[in-house]
Automatic annotation (TrEMBL):
Source organism of this protein record: Candidatus Filomicrobium marinum
CDD domains: DRE_TIM_LeuA3
The protein's name in its UniProt record: Citramalate synthase
Sequence ranges assigned to domain Pyruvate carboxyltransferase in this UniProt record: 6-272
UniProt cross-references to Pfam families, sorted A to Z: HCS_D2, HMGL-like, LeuA_dimer
EC number: 2.3.3.21
Catalytic activity: pyruvate + acetyl-CoA + H2O = (3R)-citramalate + CoA + H(+)
Length: 544
């Protein structure tokens, strides 16, 4: 039986940016784009070119996507203004987007009150805007804002908005539950009606989660005929969030009602990266992953010791609704480490480290990872630290240098012109392996971590040429436990300006400076390892 194609449209970089406390930097957006493209999504909406400097720069060049269509978001041209004289609309046409999704009012009440124009003028703006996008060679889409409220208020006009966009050449007409108040049975009934006017192969669904029904509403819309689903990774979005693609995608692929009839661009192999993608986003946002999230949460396949734990080893398929490894997650049982071992092997394979699954060093590495995670380390985003840890366990990383000691001072004083300033100064004593005399480096910085980073990279002797282009570009701190003995986890992102490579390392300690320094050390060692820097061995006693 031939399966129908469903298309997945991600709006994390626009809708997700509406989340309280979320602000994506340009490099954040580019990194998230890479994660989403690797996952196999069909459309990635990058933002609104012309609306802010970040989005404008993002759309100044086209990402090198392997799977996704790079999509810009914007508005229809303004009524009473020509296409050529509408600055906002022209910014869309001048962007490097392959597709453009514009939003329009589909509730006649909003057309009258918010826009202050006639219903016909709104339809004319929609038709002209869609036609202009098609004429530019781009794929055109229309988000019908507040469609379901508009349908309830004036069915004929809401449907006319959808029909107008379709007849003007829109590839997709997306029905939006903008305030998140529509219930699943209403979604089903309304979409069933709309597909009599606009073919389901051209209909999309966009839902918000204000009644905790965004995922259910999206799936119900598919059952009723929609063939494009819009949503965000981890359900980010304003108010209560958008439809959570992290839940929708595995449901489409793993639940027979959908899997038997539909296919998406997310293959089973790509689906196994879903948990990783979810947690990368959380680390970018510097927030703890939601442990109880369906499919990808740390507790999604966790079972305490007892009758379930003992039985799940024999018949896991009867206790778990899907296999945890199918979404890149792991089974967590107090009496079993099989899921963890599989994850270690899969990660080593991804890193290109060839090793037998029966090699005893795998078990040793697994135990070390578990011990470190119990102390607060995390390797979901800090892949550079994990690779160092793994290659060290396999004896593949030489000792390049040893830090004998470091010291940081922070002083607040009046400078020469009488301004009150805070100055940080760091001193680092390093032994380069093979040398018997230490190197001392001193640097000032904008804060103690910046000063330490400067001192560490100021003089590494024969290794200096390898790290000339390395710079610290991001620094995130999370307090893992409270009280006077709080454990601090630090993630450091480094960038090599000569190659463009980026990597993230992690450090954990009760002392924030100590945790930061550990992450900085991993960063430098990772760069030296990747560049195959030569090393000589000398014994130098140090805790580092």
């Amino acid at each position: 039986m031939t399966k129908e194609r469903l298309y997945l449209f991600d709006t994390t970089l626009r809708d997700g940016a509406q989340t309280t406390g979320v602000a994506f930097k340009l490099e954040d957006k580019r990194r998230i784009c890479k994660v989403l493209d690797d996952l196999g999504l069909d459309y990635i909406e990058g933002g609104y070119p012309g609306a802010n400097a970040t989005d404008t720069e993002l759309f100044a060049s086209k990402p090198d996507f392997a799977n996704a269509t790079f999509t810009a978001f914007g508005m229809t041209k303004r009524a009473g203004r020509s296409l050529e004289n509408d600055v906002g609309f022209q910014a869309l046409l001048q962007s490097e987007a392959d597709a453009i999704c514009i939003v329009a009012k589909s509730w006649d009440y909003h057309v009258r009150v918010a826009l202050g124009i006639t219903n016909d003028e709104n339809l004319e703006s929609i038709a002209q805007s869609i036609s202009a996008i098609v004429a530019s060679g781009r794929e055109a889409m229309l988000d019908c804002e507040h469609f379901f409220d508009g349908y309830k208020g004036n069915r004929d006009y809401a449907v006319a908005v959808a029909r107008t966009a379709y007849e003007a050449g829109a590839r997709w007409v997306v029905l939006c539950d903008t305030n998140g108040g529509t219930l699943p049975h209403e979604i089903h009934d309304i979409v069933t009606d709309v597909v009599t006017v606009v073919p389901g192969t051209h209909l999309g669904i966009h839902t918000h989660n204000d009644t905790e029904n965004a995922v259910a509403n999206s799936l119900m819309a598919v059952r009723a005929g929609c063939r494009q689903i819009q949503g965000t990774l981890n359900g980010l979005g304003e108010r209560c969030g958008n439809a959570n693609l992290t839940s929708i995608i595995p449901t489409l692929l793993l639940k027979s009602e959908f899997a038997e009839h539909f296919e998406t661009g997310v293959t089973p192999a790509r689906l196994r990266t879903l948990t990783h993608a979810s947690r990368v986003l959380d680390e970018i946002l510097n927030r703890s992953p939601y442990k109880h999230a369906p499919y990808v949460g740390e507790s999604a396949f966790a079972t305490k010791a007892g009758i379930h734990a003992s039985a799940i080893l024999k018949e896991p398929e009867t206790y778990e609704h899907v296999a945890p490894e199918s979404v890149g997650n792991t089974r967590r049982l107090l009496i079993s480490d099989q899921g963890g071992r599989s994850n270690i092997l899969a990660e080593l394979d991804r890193l290109g480290i060839a090793i037998s699954k029966d090699d005893p060093r795998i078990g040793n590495l697994l135990e070390e990872v578990k011990e470190r995670e119990a102390k607060g380390y995390t390797y979901e985003s800090a892949e550079a630290s994990f690779e160092l840890l793994a290659r060290r366990a396999l004896g593949e990383v030489p000792k390049y240098f040893t830090v004998d000691s470091f010291r940081v001072m922070v002083e607040r004083r009046h400078n020469a012109v009488g301004d009150l300033v805070t100055v940080s100064e760091a001193t680092v004593k390093v032994f380069i392996n093979g040398d018997r005399e230490p190197l001392w480096s001193v640097a000032e910085g904008n804060g103690p971590v910046n000063a330490l980073d400067g001192a560490l990279r100021k003089d590494l002797g024969r290794y200096q040429k390898y790290i000339e282009g390395v710079e610290l570009v991001d620094y995130k701190v999370r307090i893992l436990t409270g009280g006077t003995e709080a454990i601090t986890r630090v993630l450091v992102e480094s960038h090599d300006t000569t190659t463009g490579a980026r990597w993230i390392t992690v450090g954990v300690s009760p002392n924030i400076i100590d945790a930061s320094f550990e992450a900085l050390l991993d960063s430098i060692n990772f760069k030296l390892m990747k560049d195959s820097a030569p090393a000589e061995h000398v014994k130098v006693v140090s805790r580092y």
